[in-house]
Design goal:
Elements lengths: L1 E6 L2 E6 L10 H16 L4 E6 L20 H17 L5 E5 L2 E3 L1 H7 L3 E5 L3 E3 L13 H9 L1 H10 L2 E3 H6 L5 E3 L4 H13 L3 H15 L5 H15 L3 H11 L10
Helix pairs in contact: 1-2, 2-3, 4-5, 8-9
Length: 256
């Protein structure tokens, strides 16, 4: 089950199947995609993704999968990849609060999220060695980019899992937080972002994506940054930010 709440400019999407560690079947993927569409149409200024219960998302729900007739390609290419693309393209800042298991498709959800905060005792890695399957949902690219080839294959071959604290130390995610404080911490950060200069955040999001995807290097990035700043000069947020600085008051941004 996927739940969506909208309040104070923030969308909170909850994976709500705690008995199966929020693992996702095709219907859940469709419902999650629809929740992101609804949040975008509502014009929210930040989004928070979380999982109910002990785990964030243990990956694909394989409890009723029949290997002889399974269409893994169809599930991943037809459902998961389009969802990840929608998530990554969401026009406002996105945050994830990750506790417990974050595996397979669950890991993919974090790859498609801007900022990921993890519980110190979260579990991240590749459990596929025991299934005769391979790491999917972008896991190879994430691990090789941030951990290197040797550590990636170590995790894949052994099936060992990293704690949230280890994953942050290794550069996988942004911050590790006490499990009891994780959700409140992430909600606070999302709320702050929603009150920020979200038009400028959108420009930065696009620039980071271009650099990450190796479409641009330093000099191209400088040019794109210059043009982004030029576009922002015409925004009300830009005028408000400068006026607030010059009059020594707190800015009030409206995302325009």
């Amino acid at each position: 089950m996927i739940n969506l709440t909208l309040a104070d400019g923030v969308a909170e999407i909850t994976l709500d199947a705690p008995k199966k560690l929020n693992s996702l079947d095709e219907q859940a993927i469709d419902d999650l995609d629809a929740a992101y569409q609804e949040a975008e149409q509502a014009g929210v200024r930040a989004l928070l993704l979380r999982g109910e219960g002990k785990g964030f998302c243990a990956g694909r729900d394989i409890s009723e999968v029949v290997p002889a007739t399974d269409d893994a390609l169809g599930f991943l290419q037809g459902k998961v990849t389009p969802l990840m693309r929608r998530m990554a393209a969401f026009p406002a800042p996105t945050f994830a609060a990750v506790q417990g298991a974050c595996l397979g498709v669950g890991l993919g959800l974090t790859i498609a999220t801007d900022v990921v905060y993890v519980a110190e005792n979260a579990k991240i890695g590749s459990p596929f060695a025991a299934l005769g399957a391979t790491l999917d949902s972008g896991g190879h690219a994430l691990f090789v980019e941030r951990l290197g080839a040797h550590r990636t294959l170590d995790l894949i071959y052994t099936g060992d899992l990293m704690s949230g604290a280890e994953a942050v130390t290794a550069g996988l995610f942004s911050r590790a937080v006490d499990p009891e404080e994780l959700l409140d911490f992430t909600r606070e950060k999302a709320a702050v972002a929603a009150q920020g200069a979200t038009l400028a955040f959108r420009e930065s999001k696009a620039l980071v994506a271009a650099v990450r995807d190796q479409r641009i290097g330093l000099w191209e990035s400088l040019k794109d940054e210059n043009h982004a700043q030029g576009r922002l000069c015409d925004s009300t947020d830009y005028s408000e930010g400068f006026a607030a600085f010059q009059t020594k008051r707190k800015p009030v941004f409206n995302g325009r």
